[in-house]
Amino acid sequence: MDTFRTQLPSFDLPKKLIRLGELAYNLWWTWQPEAARLFSQLDRDMWERLHHNPIRMLREIKRARLNEVLKDKDYMDSYKRVFTDFDAYMNQQDTWAHRTQPKLASHPIAYFSMEFGLHETLPIYSGGLGVLAGDHLKEASDLGLPLVGVGFMYAQGYFSQRISEDGWQEALNNPLKFDDLPVNLVVENGKPLSVSVEFPDRAVALQVWEVRVGRVPLYLLDSNVEGNSEFDRLLTARLYWSDLDRRIMQEVLLGIGGVRMLRAVGIDPAVWHMNEGHAAFLTLERARERVAKGETFEAAIQKTRGQNIFTTHTPVPAGNDEFPLWLIDKYLAAIWHQLGLTQEQFYDLARHDQPHGQTFSMGILALRFSEGRNAVSELHGRVSREMWHFLWKDRRVDDVPITYITNGVHTANWMARRLRLLLDLHFGAGWMERLDDPELWDKLDTLPPQALWEVHQHLKRKLNFYLRERVRDRWIVGGFHPVQVVSAGVLLNPYMLTIGFARRFATYKRASLILSDVERLLHIINRPNMPVQIVFAGKAHPADEPGKQLIQKIYRTVKRAETGGRLVFVEDYDMNLARYLVQGVDVWLNTPRRPMEASGTSGMKAGLNGVLNFSVLDGWWREAYNGKNGWSIGEDKQMDSQDTQDAMDAQDLYSKLENEIIPLYYDRDINNIPLGWVERMKESIKTVTPQFSTRRMVKEYVEKLYSKALE
Ligand SMILES: *Cc1c(COP(=O)(O)O)cnc(C)c1O
């Protein structure tokens, strides 16, 4: 999109390598393994030490090393190939979106999200919601869909996690050095572009950073600018402030500031997509623009609602942000005046009667003022229609206008390079163009089991090696007790059955379900000849005490000598660790309390790598599970009591592990290959990759929602 262009910082590089600088500032490299290797091959140790940060790499690498690289024919050939591909990609005219949606060409889709998970070096995400948003941008880029992202550039990013010897989560908030990150300040006439948002007693100024995600720009708002008070400068410092004052201000900045920023940058979106309700104030800002030109609020809303799309991710009312009315008074009084509304009329836009009093619900605001509304899986669609039925009282539940589009993951981003290479050989290069075509995947039947198993073994060894190096680094810097060294995974064995459990530690995820009978679990993991290892990882929101207690409970079990080092907790779950885990374990365990998962995506990342899902029939897995591509926990229904549900799910979990999963894994042929297991791995890759890809998902957004908004 030729909107606003900022000048990229340059690096002191030999002429023949000069374009590495450009590549470092376009996240396209993060889902192109060969492009990533142009950086890692410069110096593998440095690449790890700098946490996969190409900008720091190019700044710190010695000239002598670069001169060596110039003489390395393989490297220089690869450099040529990568930039030929990059140029072809950036200039491609004949894209899917261009062919099928010519109407979209002139005006982009604006995609608003509180978080974006694009790469571990840019920690502006906390979990699945953000990673989904990041994958959505990458896919939009691949499909040639004109789309721009809008979010926040958090000065401190999301916290890094340390676990104390007693299992307590400690949060480290480190200021990010923007100079080291692939972000660029948007400037206008030599000065930082600035937009302003008014609160009743003051205005807050925002500057804007641009991130390039292939062909898609992402604009990030930042209140850390001169002229703002110290307090206001911190408004965008962290994700999800837990005090409601700062939370509502953040959401005002995102919704209202985001619209103003796009105007200032010169972008006129045709579609406005809200990823969750945090950005719902954008609906009011768009109406305000028209009211300012003389329209009534009612008319303004009628004219703008058709272009708004709202994706809900929460299956419980409490999961949506709701604000007490006095906070609305405190921060939005100026806005209802500008909309020509009274205080009561403004409350009515999103008034929610709750047992504890009335609130202003961001979910209701978004639902009322968006014509396109979707949940993120089939079951979640059903739950959402029931949950919001009261907004459409005259309709039957089934006719509540909330559809569903099941989430997906960006294949190129999550599939292991080795597996991709194997599929290149088997399918022929270019198969990624057709990755959502189920017929392509039938060819997997003829893949020799040995080839797939070898790749999988390689990835398991890689995970083990990686965990060991992480422990070493932690031990060297001090403050790590020897028992923590064991708890972090040094005794793992890459040839044993390994289960991964990694996600945010929200209580509904029931991370401790597998600990409900610790003695039985210890027996399972220590069976002679058939041991089992479990790797846990995940952060709890710093204000979530029950979540932190859950981590502590797990950590205390992990530390017990009887586990033999086979239960492990790895600190600081992020996209990098996620990549190692979803590629390098055997089984991906997920035990949410149905129907709380909404969709879930980490299991998709695992499944497309041939890691077998073992999960509650909730969200996406309920749609994917076919009896042959993994295992279910519990049945396709809910019990009335949570305790009963927990007990039944735990029982099913243990017995399937004991009777089906472990025996199948250790059932080997004469070449030590578990043929039955590999059969399931193929079935997993075949069923998960096409259907649960963002390729399928973004196309569905275009066909079901975006193109409607254009009519
Ligand atoms: C994919 C991903 C998630 C989402 O995990 P779910 O278990 O599906 O909720 C969270 N965090 C990270 C770092 C991820 O990569």
What would you say this structure looks like, in words?
The chain is α/β, with parallel strands linked by helices. It folds into three domains: 3-91, no CATH class; 96-407 and 699-709, Glycogen Phosphorylase B (Rossmann fold), CATH 3.40.50; 424-692, Glycogen Phosphorylase B (Rossmann fold, 3-Layer(aba) Sandwich), CATH 3.40.50. Helix content is 44%, strand content 15%. The strands form five sheets. Strands 1, 2, 5, 8, 9, 10, 11, 12, 16 and 17 form a ten-stranded mixed β-sheet that branches. Helix 8 (128-143) links the parallel strand 1 and strand 2 (147-152). Helix 10 (244-265) packs across helix 11 (281-291), helix 11 (281-291) packs across helix 12 (297-305) and helix 20 packs antiparallel against helix 24. The protein is globular, with a radius of gyration of 25 Å. The relative contact order is 0.10. The structure holds pyridoxal-5'-phosphate. The site of pyridoxal-5'-phosphate has 12 residues, from helix 8, helix 24 and helix 25.
Largest sheet geometry: 10 strands, mixed
Q: Distance between termini?
A: 22 Å
CATH class of the largest domain: Alpha Beta
Strand content: 5-15%
- Residue-averaged pLDDT, rounded? 95
Oligomerization state of this entry? single chain
Low-confidence stretches: none
Structural class: alpha/beta
**Number of strand segments:** 23
Count structural domains: 3
In helices, the fraction of residues equals 40-55%
Q: What is the assigned CATH homologous superfamily of the largest domain?
A: Glycogen Phosphorylase B
Q: Could you say which overall geometry the principal axes of the C-alpha atoms support?
A: globular
From the alpha carbons, calculate the radius of gyration and give it in angstroms: 25 Å
Bound molecules: pyridoxal-5'-phosphate
